[in-house]
Amino acid sequence: MHNRFDLSTIERCSEIPACRGPEVLSLVVKVDPISGNESEQYPYAYPKEYRERVERFSRNYIWRKMTGDITIDFLEAAVERMFTADELSSVVDFARLKELKHRIVHLFLYANDTGRNRWN
Q1: Among the listed residues 77, 104, 84, 99, the one whose alpha carbon sits nearest the alpha carbon of residue 21
Q2: Could you tell me the pLDDT band of residue 119, with boundaries at 50, 70 and 90?
Q3: CB 30: neighbour CB atoms within 10 A?
Q4: How far apart are CA 45 and CA 15, in angstroms?
Q5: Is the domain covering 19-109 a CATH 3.40.1000 domain?
Q6: Domain residue extents for the chain
Q7: What is the tens place of the pLDDT at every residue in 33-76?
Q8: For residue 74, how many C-alpha atoms fall within 13 Å in the half-sphere facing its CB?
Q9: 118 CB burial (10 A radius; 0-12, 13-18, 19+)
Q10: pTM for this one?
């Protein structure tokens, strides 16, 4: 017997299975794009707050999912929108951000693919 998802019980968009919140959070924590001296010196000014960032991503994702228009460009932009312009210019490591974009695009577009795009 399959359990059905009860939308009335959720409190956050990241809890909707299509948003894959736990998987996105795991990737963000693993890649840890907020780094550098400023983020370490001023953690109160640049808090990581990855759960809240994943929630922001999930809200953007679920609205776009409803229109059926999930693209690589959209996913990459949604990842960037997890961070403010100030954070992007001062504490986000661009190499790690690029890796995070790649992994999230793969998670949503290629996770069921068994071909050459499979992420290990």
Answers
A1: 104
A2: very low
A3: 10
A4: 28
A5: no
A6: 19-109
A7: 997 777 777 778 888 899 999 999 999 999 999 988 899 999 99
A8: 16
A9: exposed
A10: 0.82
Contact indicator for 14, 3 with CB cutoff of 8 Å: no
Contact 99, 27 (CB under 8 A): no
Residues 33, 100: contact at Cβ < 8 Å? yes
Least confident of 44-48, 62-66, 87-91, 105-109: 44-48
Query: What is the C-alpha separation between 79 and 19, in angstroms, rounded?
Result: 13
Q: Where residue 3 falls among pLDDT bands split at 50, 70, 90?
A: low
Full DSSP string of the chain: -PPPP-GGG-SSGGGSGGG-HHHHHHHHHHH--B-SHHHHH-TTTS---HHHHHHHHHHHHHHHHHHT---HHHHHHHHHTTS-HHHHHHTB-HHHHHHHHHHHHHHHHTTT--STT---
Q: What is the pLDDT of residue 104?
A: 97
